[in-house]
Amino acid sequence: MSLLIFIHELGHYSVARFFNIRVERFSIGFGAPVWKRKARSGTTWAVSRWPLGGYVKFAGDAGSASNPDAAALDRIRSEEDDVSDIFHFKPVWQRALVVLAGPVANFILAAVLFAVAVLWVGTRHPEALVGEVEATSPAALAGIQPGDRIVEMDGRPIDDWVSMAQHIQLRGNTPIKTVVERDADRIALTVTPRMIEDEDFVGGRMTRGQFGIRLSSDAQMETRRYNPVSALAFGSDQVVNTLSATGRYIGRIFSGREDGKQLGSILRIGAMTGKATVDVAKAEVPAGERVRNLLLVMLNLGAGISVALGFANLLPIPMLDGGHLVFYGYEALAGKPLSQKKQEIGFRFGMAILLGLFVVLTINDIGYIGSLLS
Fold first, then answer.
1. Which helix (H) or strand (E) holds 87?
2. Is residue 95 within 8 Å of 68, Cβ to Cβ?
3. Is 132 a catalytic residue?
């Protein structure tokens, strides 16, 4: 997490320095610093006591959330002749790019991590060939038969079993227009996945959509190898797909089709990382293979968390990057910034939302950890 947060804040910092913005502090963690050093640029680099976040503080900021300090900005105006390096006096488009750079840095990091993983071991793609069909399952009721090859869902081509499963998982109780290939004919069907409770890759409980079909033992397996360019393209696609799946899941929560229990925070991340490490360490394989498997798990888990971190920061909540972008959008349209009082109200409202989310996510995490231990 500290690495992912460092990259996030480095995105903010790098674009700020590109625009010659004065940065007072770059901190990993909150609270009193346990280590700090002042660079020639005037920025104090620090590692703080509570490493559950981080921030870049610009001159004129009231705090780590980069909300403007009106008194400090007035003092800077009165005491300094040149204020062109103050973040809050920069054009709105430059401020927006500085804010956007944090999430973008997380997305770039995720693409690189995904790319390293597939560059190392490649990927395996079994064709979407149906073997067993459970009696009375959604697939059976819709008319899917053993030997069918699923080629299209909701107008999108299905390349393999994995992409098919991913499409189904986030569409529980939602009809899916499905095209299967049977004896050289294409047959259009509508299948409504049922919602089931299942285990994720470390054994925790999760809910997902399911057709009730199994992969055929006759399915052909394609192993794909990548060069650096194609691996990075694959990593970028994974970032886009993860963002799309996350957005769909959030939308299903608001429409009442998901309960939101799959959302988690730092406790769940710690539990998943720890469980994955233990599982790999216990595997009865040579030590070198255990290390390789652990690194692959960490690469993919880190990439997924990095995407989630970037996505979460883009939510339109004051105090988060997305909230700042909303304020800057208003400023660009109205030709003037939102008043200091309204911004302060917004930040208080944002703090209340974040505290509420923290409580909900902690409850989710406790339930998830309980399912790992049961």
1. none
2. no
3. no
